[in-house]
Each structure stands twice: as C-alpha cells, then as structure tokens.
Amino acid sequence: MSSTSRKKVLLMGKSGSGKTSMRSVIFSNYTARDTRRLGATIDVEQSAVRFLGGLVLNLWDCGGQNAFVDNYLSSQKDTIFSNVAVLIYVFDITSTEWEGDLRYFEDILFALRENSPDAGVWVLINKMDLVDKEDPKRRKYDERKSDLLAVDERVRKDLEEEGKIEGIGGVLRCFPTSIWDESLYKAWSSIIHTLIPNIGLITSHLTYLRDICLSVEAVLFEAETFLVIAKSGSPLGCDPSDLDQVEVTNGARELDQQRFEKISEIIKGFKKTCQRNHEQYHGFEAKFDDCTVVLEPLTRNTYILLVSVDPRAETGALLYNVHQASPHMAEFATKHSLSQKCGLCRGNKEMKYDVKGDDDDSLPAWDGAKP
User: Distance (Å, rounded) from C-alpha 129 to C-alpha 55?
Assistant: First the structure.
C-alpha cells in the first residue's frame, strides 16, 4: 500500500535573489555556471519532486517582481499561503534595498502565519560568496539574521494580540548560502530532513546499522539530489558537543563539520561527469590505512555512507550488512504498516507494526525470516 505524502513548499524572494538558480542546482543537476542562462520566474511555477518514494514536494517557485508579490498578497493570498508545510524565503546579501526587502518579507510572513501557522520558515541569505572576502567574520549576515528574527517575533506578537491565532508552531531558521559551494546543500538538507516521514524510525535503524558495522557514522542520502536525509547517533547538524558516545569515542569531533554537504556536492558533480560519458554511477568502496568507507545504494531512492575506523571492518562485511538492511529500510517509504520482524520497530509510534505472532522481545533490529 502506498503511503505517499504531499508537502507544499513555497520558494519566494525578490527578483534576482537566486531562488530559481538554487532550485535548479538542487533538483535539476545544474552547475552554478549553468544557472547563468536562467531567466526570471514569471508568476508561479509549480513542480513535483519525489523523495524516498513516499514523499512528494509540491514546490511553488514564486516570481519576485513587485507586481507578482502584490498579487500574492491580495487576490491570490488564500491560494498561495494555505496548507503550506515550508516557506523558503531567499534574500540577496548584496541588496541595497534592505529595508524595503524586510517590509515585503514581513507582509509575506504575516500572510503565511494567518493561513498556515504551523509552517516552517527557512530564510536563506544568498550570494554569500560575493561578500565573504570583505566580511570574513560575517558581521553583515549576523545583522541581517537579527533583523529577520525581530520581524518574526513582531509578526507572532501582532497576530496573537489580534486574536487571529492562539499559537504559532512553525519556527524561523536562517542559513548563509551560495550556489558556488556546499552551503546550499547544508541548507536544503536541513529543510528536507524535517519533512521526511518516519524520520525517528530511520535514524534509529541507521544507528543500529552503524553499531553492527563497527562504524563512526551511517549517513543516508537521497539518490537524485544527494541531499542528506538523516544520520546515525546525534541529530543532523548538531553542535559537536552533542555527539553521542560512539561518535566521540571514534573521533567524530575532529571531522570536517561540512563533510556531508561536501560529499553531496562532489558526488553530484561526479554523477554528472558519468552521464556525459554515458556511464552510470553505482557506488564507492575503499579501505585506507586509518578507515574503511562504503557509499552504496540502500534502497531504490537512497544511498548510505558508512565510515569505520575499526581495523577489523572489511568492505565486504559492510556491504553484506547494507544488503541485509535494504529490504526492511525500503518498507518505510512504501507501506503504512511494517510487516517484517524488527525489534526497533515494535515499540516505535511512527508506523504501525503489524507482524502476526511476533511476541519475541529478544528479536534483533531486523530479521530476514518471513513472518
């Protein structure tokens, strides 16, 4: 039984902020250089993007010219801002009209909070590559972020005082981005992570797989965009001080904090090279002096990265465990209830566990035997 979930995602920002360019880099395999030939978005462009087989992003790319924005806030207000899961709003860090940009954003945020109070709001302050050399400590970005958080607080307070809504569930998060580096993947991975169904279940299984593979971490990537979906152990994007004991013991604190996003960027570039040469990318495995690495398809829609620093770990053993886990992990995106025996799933509330006659509490995480 299909468990397809549709999520409405608004992509907004003033004309020229770079929103269509980033959408093309993430979802259409454009390089940053390729985006130079893109034109301005006219009114609203809708597209459907499928993740994990069970999540469909209904992406609304809204043109940023003043006339279009005025229309969104008047005659199209209910259509645009109803039933929104996420608003992604893009600012150009080089804009010379910041006060005007803020006023437009405040109006849009007000309309969103009225119609979709639980929507998450991601603000991407874009084109950071153009200012980083003159402002290496990113003081300008911090000032912009502070202004945006103040706008969000003001909108919440005004709506609550007017009695239009009792409480707003969606929070506002800011990310500095550029289509020329991995920061774009970090921001979009964070957005997608919050929309994935059964994310707690996925994380617990990744942690179990990490531990039986004697690995530092197990990381799940979406196959087409190569965005990071989830990771084992500590939460995705957490502070190094919040790593779990396995990560700390195996030296994860010393690893590059941008490593997942850099992998996304590298693999997407390599896949594009493979396509130009009429080859297909399948995966990667290697054993080095101090670590063993496997990047392998886990399900039809995902790849898994396993990194082990244990000298006993062999690529063949890692691949065997990945292949054993694959059928059960594939269930999360295609069914409403789980039918394969699993000790982790039994007590989880995210999906129905429907295995007849399974009353064995000593069951491991997954069992290939048919119920």
Answer: 32
DSSP 195-244: H-TTHHHHHHHHHHHHHHTT-SEEEEEETTT--EEEESSSPTT--GGG--
Residues 6+ apart with CB under 8 A from 28: none
Task: Report the C-alpha gap between 111 and 72 in whole angstroms.
Answer: 9
Same fold, 5-194 and 198-353: no
- The pLDDT value recorded for residue 349 is 79
Instruction: Compute the distance between CA of residue 308 and CA of residue 302 in angstroms, rounded to an integer.
Output: 20
pLDDT digits (tens, 9 = 90+) for 20-32: 888 888 888 788 8
End-to-end CA distance of the chain: give it in Å, rounded.
18
> Where do the domains of the chain lie?
5-194, 198-353
- Report whether 138 contacts 176 (CB < 8 A): yes
CATH placement of domain 198-353? 3.30.450.190
pTM: 0.85
Q: DSSP 3-state helix, strand, coil percentages of the chain (rounded to 5)?
A: 40, 20, 40
d(CA 288, CA 359): 43
Give just the sign of the alpha carbon dihedral 361, 362, 365, 366.
Answer: negative
Residue 58, classed as helix, strand or coil, is strand
pLDDT in tens, 45-89: 888 877 766 788 888 888 878 888 888 888 888 889 999 999 999
If we measure between CA atoms, which residue out of 240, 246, 227 comes closest to residue 308? 246
Place of tokens 């691949």: 319
Beta strands in 65-165 (DSSP E): 86-92, 120-126
Overall fold of domain 5-194: Rossmann fold (3.40.50)
